[in-house]
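Retry 2 of 3 after timeout on previous attempt. Resubmitting structure tokens to design endpoint.
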């Protein structure tokens, strides 16, 4: 399985920016969003490292250790962009296309308004340090709801569906219909 370092290495290679680097905070948020949308679209995480609800938004501590004390990041020691599958790269490309144009401040603000980060932090005062984990279940639930409700989100990569056989497409359609129905039931109960 890929690691957060591999995901970050791919993002840096693909979305390096004008100075061939990204602000560390932006990189962390893009890795977080890649994880979130992978769980929605593929039903599985890109990497297994936990994501924590730090005061500036979601952070993968292992990735933070790799870019520690760097304001702008151009490489990730130990990261291998080639360790990702074509399907994972397609997910990352969609996430980069959607979120890559946001400034660092916009990405931080965005994550601060979203339920997974808010839930993990609970009633902590603004600006307080925290290492509380943002659970995979809360991430998947929140972004699945966003997807089903048609809120602004990256476009799902089509490569997997185009290459899939009809049984796989039928199974995926049934799974999506089940998620849609469960979400509608959840919304009706509120």
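Retry 2 succeeded. Sequence:
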């Amino acid at each position: 399985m890929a690691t957060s370092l591999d995901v970050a290495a791919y993002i840096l290679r693909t979305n390096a920016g004008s100075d061939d680097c990204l602000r560390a905070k932006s990189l962390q948020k893009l890795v977080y969003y890649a994880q979130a949308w992978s769980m929605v679209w593929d039903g599985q995480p890109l990497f297994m490292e936990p994501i924590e609800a730090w005061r500036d938004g979601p952070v993968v501590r292992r990735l933070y250790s790799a870019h520690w004390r760097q304001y702008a990041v151009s490489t990730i020691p130990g990261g291998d962009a080639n360790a990702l599958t074509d399907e994972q790269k397609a997910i990352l490309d969609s996430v980069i296309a959607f979120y890559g144009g946001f400034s660092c401040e916009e990405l931080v603000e965005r994550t601060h308004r979203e339920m997974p980060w808010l839930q993990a932090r609970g009633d902590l005062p603004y600006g307080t340090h925290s290492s509380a984990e943002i659970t995979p279940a809360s991430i998947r639930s929140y972004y699945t709801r966003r997807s089903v409700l048609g809120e602004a989100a990256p476009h799902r990569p089509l490569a997997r569906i185009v290459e899939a056989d009809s049984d796989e497409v039928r199974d995926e359609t049934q799974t999506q219909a089940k998620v849609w129905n469960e979400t509608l039931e959840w919304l009706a109960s509120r």
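Attempt log closed. Residues 159-166 have pLDDT under 50 and may be disordered.
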